[in-house]
Amino acid sequence: MNFQQQLERYPQNEIHERIATTTPAQIDLALQQQRLSVDDFSRLLSPNITDAQLEQMAAKAHKITQQRFGRTILLYAPIYLSNECFNGCKYCGFSADNHLSRKTLTMQEVEQEAKILRSHGFRHMLLLTGEAPKVAGIDYLENAVKIIKKYCGSISIEVFPMDIDGYQRMVDVGVDGLTVYQETYDSELYRQLHPYGPKSNYSYRLAAPERAGAAGMRKIGIGSLLGLGDSLSDVFYSGLHGLYLARKFWRSQVTLSFPRLCPAEGGFQPNSIVDDRQLTQFICALRLLLPDAGLILSTREKAALRNNLLPLGITQMSAGSSTSPGGYSEDSHDGEQFTTSDERSPSEVESYLKSRGYDPVWKDWDGAFLSKAN
């Protein structure tokens, strides 16, 4: 059974109703479980959770994270290689409908971005593009990875979905992680938000993490963009998706992100608002469901909130991020995908983590490990 088939067993209207009508007594029962069932997880997403129950869940999430990850936080930085895109996503700054400065980095510019990030200490880099494979496709990515891997030990990609052969090429050239957000698991809303372009294929995108797992990708990252649709069901489906991937591709580490919609070119307004309390609840519930998953919090969120959420399950953070191609070299916001909220430098984030007793990790993996093993 693939994940889409499993997903169809949980109709959205039923899931939303189950979560929304959960009682505090049912939440208490879920909190008593050592390992959550899917039903338990849905109960912990309920808006009817009390402050005392949320505090109890936060304490459990903190304890599990300490047991599984210690006090380490992996720091990473994104490199935007291209903002050219053929999609008409209604919420994204890179949408083909938006009139922004388009740019695809040359290999010389790619190297300059990598050098700058390395000088700040980063050894884990996330490469991003829009979806324009004819402009920045697999061949382009292979060349970029060959250059960047001289400056870091771990490379992940957040680009257009590929077939298994495409992901295998990425693994072979040195990529060890993939991030692909479904954005929303509501297939009808998805079609409305993605009216044209390759991203309009809901099923192909949904199956991308499975194709990456089949190709041997070491890290598989998923998530939904909170604010696009019904957040309760989207977080539930994200957890269900993570559970499916963790069981099927047990050699890979599953990571989850929970980005909230940020201001971007085009002025799209969220369909729902996820406040800080609710985001905290979602993070804690996901940690209880997936004790070994990496949970990622990016610079979309403000510094104060990221600081407060650290103990509750977060294992990876970006720092000093630019969301436009060439943004580190040019120190420019032109052509950015969205506006970041945490403007601290990498060294400031590192100093804060150390002041709280955390161990900032700039690299937790090196592709050379595999070549030595072979």
Protein described:
The chain is α/β, with parallel strands linked by helices. The protein has one domain (3-373): TIM Barrel (Alpha-Beta Barrel), CATH 3.20.20.70. The protein contains 17 helices and 9 strands. An 8-stranded parallel beta barrel has the order 1-2-3-4-5-6-7-8, surrounded by 4 helices. Strand 3, helix 8 (164-173) and strand 4 form a beta-alpha-beta unit.
Mean pLDDT: 93
Q: What is the rounded distance between the termini?
A: 33 Å
Summarize the amount of helix as a percent range. Answer: 40-55%
CATH architecture: Alpha-Beta Barrel
Any idea how many domains?
Answer: 1
User: What is the CATH homology-level superfamily?
Assistant: Aldolase class I
Sequence-ordered SSE layout with sheet pairings:
Elements: H1 3-7, H2 12-20, H3 24-31, H4 38-44, H5 51-69, E1 72-80, H6 107-119, E2 124-128, H7 138-148, E3 154-158, H8 164-173, E4 177-179, H9 187-193, H10 202-206, H11 208-214, E5 219-223, H12 231-248, E6 253-257, H13 276-289, E7 294-297, H14 303-309, E8 316-318, H15 327-330, H16 346-355, E9 359-361, H17 368-373
Parallel strand pairs: 1-2, 1-8, 1-9, 2-3, 3-4, 4-5, 5-6, 6-7, 7-8
Helix pairs in contact: 3-4, 5-13, 6-7, 7-8
